[in-house]
Write a structure and sequence with these properties.
- It contains 3 helices and 8 strands.
- It has about 110 residues and is α+β, with helices and mostly antiparallel strands.
- The chain has one domain.
- The N and C termini lie far apart (about 30 Å).
- Bound molecules: zinc ion (ZN) (2 copies).
């Protein structure tokens, strides 16, 4: 599937502590299928997924579009103080690079 955020590149599977997630090579955002995000927070991700960048700041303003279901994703503010993009159809969640760290800090 193409990146729901920047839509410039195909998402690439990456394995973090036994959880496979789709990650965009361009904006470094991550797409989690339903249930995957919870597992990711519990198992801890690699340091690279934590870093904010100029790209991730810019992407925060962009509305994501679920490329799997071809529907716009909706902004949710329920998780920590983050505005994350969720797909109502497949339950997928898109996190910009760095947002995972905020979630984990909030969780622990
Ligand atoms: Zn992207
Ligand atoms: Zn979807």
């Amino acid at each position: 599937m193409f990146c729901p955020k920047c839509r410039r590149e195909e998402m690439k599977p990456e394995t973090h502590k036994n959880t496979e997630i789709d990650r965009c090579p361009v904006c470094k955002g991550m797409f989690f299928e339903k249930g995957e995000l919870e597992r990711m927070i519990i198992t801890n991700a690699s340091a690279d997924t934590f870093a904010f960048s100029a790209m991730s700041d810019a992407m925060d303003e962009v509305t994501a579009h679920c490329t799997r279901c071809d529907v716009p994703m909706k902004a949710h503010t329920g998780l920590a103080d983050l505005r994350v993009d969720m797909c109502d159809t497949c339950g997928g969640i898109f996190l910009d690079q760095g947002e995972l760290a905020t979630l984990q800090l909030h969780d622990s």
